[in-house]
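Hello again,

I reread your note about wanting to compare the complex against the isolated chains. To keep things tidy I'm splitting this into two emails, and this first one only covers the full assembly. Below are the input lines as submitted, including protein chains and any nucleic acid or small-molecule components. They are followed by the predicted structure of everything together. The single-chain runs will come separately.
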Amino acid sequence: MKKKSVIEIIASTRFLHILLSIILGFVIGAGFLAVMGISVSEAYGKLISSITSVKGFSYVIVYATAYIMTGLSVAFSFKTGVFNIGAEGQFVMGSMGAAVVGILLKDLPKPVLIPLCFLAAMIAGAIWGMIVGFLKTKWGINEVLAMIMFNWIAFYLSNYIAGIPAIHNDGTAEATKTISQNARTLLSQELRTKFDLAPTANWGILVAIFFMFVIWYIIEKTTLGYELKAVGANRNAAEYGGIGVNKSILTALAISGALAGLGGALQVMGMGGRISIFTGQEGFGFAGIVVALIGCSNPFGVLVAGLFYGALTYGGSKLNLVGAPTQLTSVIIGTVVFFIAISVIFERLGGGVRARKNIEGRKEREKEAASLPAGSEKKEDEAK
Amino acid sequence: MAKEHVDMSKPVIEMRNIVKKFGDFTANDGINLTVHKGEIHAILGENGAGKSTLMNQLYGLFKPTSGDILVNGQKIEMNNPRDAIAAGIGMVHQHFMLIQPFTVTENIVLGTEPVKGVVMDMQKARENVKALSERYGLAIDPDAKIEDISVGMQQRVEILKALYRGCEILILDEPTSSLTPQEILELIDIMHALTKDGKSIILITHKLKEIKESADYCTIIRLGRYIATVDVDKVTENDLASMMVGRQVTFKVDKPEKEPGEVVLDVKDLHALDYRGVEILKGLSLTVRRGQIVGIAGIDGNGQTELVEILTGLKKGTSGEATVNGVSVFNRTPRYGFDHGVSSIPADRQKHGLILSQSVEDNLILQNYGKEPFSRHARLNRPAIFSHATDMIGKYDIRPGGSEKRPAGTLSGGNQQKVIIAREVYNDKDLLIAVNPTRGLDVGAIEYVHRYLVEQRNKGKAILLVSFELDEIMSLSDVIDVIFDGKIVSRIPGKDADENELGLLMAGGKKQ
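Full-complex prediction:
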């Protein structure tokens, strides 16, 4: 009974912190609007109205799919003690992997080509993650630095591949060819018109939800999850307990990379259909860090956080219709992340938690003391 | 102990009827404490009895819910440690608060640096520190970097830091928990030098022996309540223990005579390098038989750590052999050693023993998560893991009850140790290596751990006990191996071991 109440307390304070952070994000966003002389109600009204229509919400889902995947990738890496800041690069490699397969094998039938694209993307992402894992376990190279560099390597590699004649656009566009129709995950034309959905409405979200369950299952229900969590939480104790630490790090980065890579595939197969020559990093992987943070690194939390992020991104793009800058959403998201980050610090410093912890232990002792034989009390009186 | 340096007419600290509540929980319930000038006053209590809460109020970290604090007869209110320092109170925490890459001098003067114009006057700082250290016989090298000096030296720096700020009353929080026996003796000398100079010391501890050796008076706290203040000279260690725990405590371990069986652990001519690449094990050999506790006595740094690390697979040796039941476990992985009969209670329970952020039930299967009934085909069997934890919590009296799903880090130190013992005893291996198994535990928990070690021995397990507590080695071991400079220099029966003789052997002396 007690155990449950403790979990409830922790869960609820954590949840309240995040809710409060989100509210504060909007409050501070409102402050900026007020300073700029833009009507707060009009701007936020636009934000809300643009995502509450069926069409608007279908856009939100389309936007959210990639964020959920990179969010899962980063959340999984958090659980296993490596900080996958390289989801950006893995995402890029994944989308390029899917695009190359979708362009070169364009004549394959849909049921074959789509899984092949997914597989190519996951392998590309996993390899990108594992290279860094290998550098770390073999030579102790800091994974965060290596990943940041590998994000750029992926960036230029993608641009290079996009320029190869077999891949490059036949027309004037600075992009790859469009991938085969058989590699697209779009919903059918009839469905889109019937329900008035976004032109890019696709079923990628189902894949993301499926992997959300897969990741939850791995973390909570399998020996692999047990090993990875143990290594993540205390490398020394895991090693002492006989778990192969290096193998675990490699596995964690491979899975994390595969998730980000698949996110890239869902993006290119669902939305664009082709990959442009980049001029700057697109930030899907970095958004994943934010999503994982808001979602408490919990797979289900990531789903909600991904939708939230998708809603802000899409709704934010409509803000200029009322004269508000689209950057407002960046302000809001930045503020939310800031407050969540400092709430984590407060939790760590929190005397409240420590005091509560003591209470529980102490109550037990008091119970024990109450059941002591009377003789022991007498002795103290004599000592006094 | 003579008390001529105690000036009973001058109370420097009076805490009157202190009550401290956290929510609906009372951590201190009407505690009284009077410390006089020149007195060493020990505060004794089990882990979590409320000692630290009391001292944190004296040091301005918490405010009492009710009750008064008087310093030199004057009632004062402290809102933060700065107020406490201004009132002449200094505190040395259990975990030192020093800046590792800074020198001793830099650490001591930190925050109150002497200046020449706008630049720091390092020369003056150095002289001040030197003068202070000579005055109290606290020998230190003012130019050494903290990261290069021993724990005992770091503690001196902490004490000097408090003295440098003009403290008259020094609070020492568990000061001996990480010191070697030699360093403990030196610390006691330092404490006496300080009281001779009119300083007062409050010593927080749960080690009875040190109270007897150093303190004048002792206040006992149990479950947040004031129990008694006693004259240390007029009570025995046993009296103190009973008052602290609230029941009679037996120090004697009941250990039936037992003829040891065949050899389980056989270590031959082991060589290994330490982390700096210097040879630390220089041909160590020893054997442990079934139904036998072999205690390794030695001063820290003579190769004990490396020996245990090699036996548990965490470190590689350069040459030699170590077999368990005839199978070599030398330079293998931890998993291999475990599968071939090695289990261990590691020295650092928070680093190697437990994953603090994970649940108790998960910690209880750390080596066995891949085996039935805890998992099948890589799928964890959560109900089996939970019921195993419930069994263990009941059997080993892990408190609080019902803590299967709580993070291990929320348990007290003693209960964390019980989780490890439950796990290793369940593993049921032929060899159990126990390293400082009672470090940081209070009397009740120590008794418990000792009982289990002897029980395992009686069941016919081979036990290798490595401990810096000589008393523990002497009361538990059937055979004591003295380690010095990377070798076992002497093997004596545990029964007729003599503390002085052991001490001499540990220091590299010859057997008489």
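For quick reference: Chain A has two domains: 1-38+324-361, 58-322.

B.
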